[in-house]
Amino acid sequence: MTPEEKLQRKKDSSKKYRETHKNKIKEYNKLPTTINNRQNNRNKLKKQAYEIISNYHNSEIKCWRCGESLIEALTIGHINNDGKQDRLVHGTGETFFRKIISGIRSCENLKIECFNCNCCLENYGKYPDEITEEEFLL
After folding, report:
1. Residue 2 lies in a domain
2. Structure letter (DSSP) for residue 66
3. Is residue 20 in some structural domain?
4. Is 112 exposed, middle or buried (CB count within 10 Å of its CB: 0-12, 13-18, 19+)?
5. Which residues of the chain carry a pLDDT beneath 70?
6. Comparing C-alpha atoms, which of 74, 70, 90, 71 is closest to residue 82?
7. Domain count, the chain
8. Residue 107 maps to a domain
9. Which burial class, exposed, middle or buried, applies to 62 when counting CB atoms under 10 A from its CB (0-12, 13-18, 19+)?
10. What is the span of the domain harbouring residue 75?
11. Of 29, 76, 99, 102, whose CA is between 20 and 30 Å from 8?
12. 12 assigned to some structural domain
């Protein structure tokens, strides 16, 4: 069976299911679980990020560059700016956090940064205190 035939078969099967289970789908869509699940997922990610920040970086809960200590403003950055390649290998979000917590992914080339420092480095290649007004306005 070709990939196109498999895709068509899957589409037909999904269409048939939707037609025969209209009421079930309608009732399911009325449930408020999608909003609750999103909030639960956000809370879970926050807890995992806090665990990583507090347990795997010598309990220093602050940006290594500027000293920002507000947990909501902290992110996990890559020392060699190789985040794109790392995300391809280790995933993002919960997958990434689970790999760190379980020991599959080490923290050796990670650093704790505030969002401001992380974004400036990504966008300008420099930290906020290194950016001149001329560079910023360009």
Report:
1. no
2. T
3. no
4. buried
5. 32-36, 56-59, 138
6. 90
7. 1
8. yes
9. middle
10. 32-137
11. 29
12. no
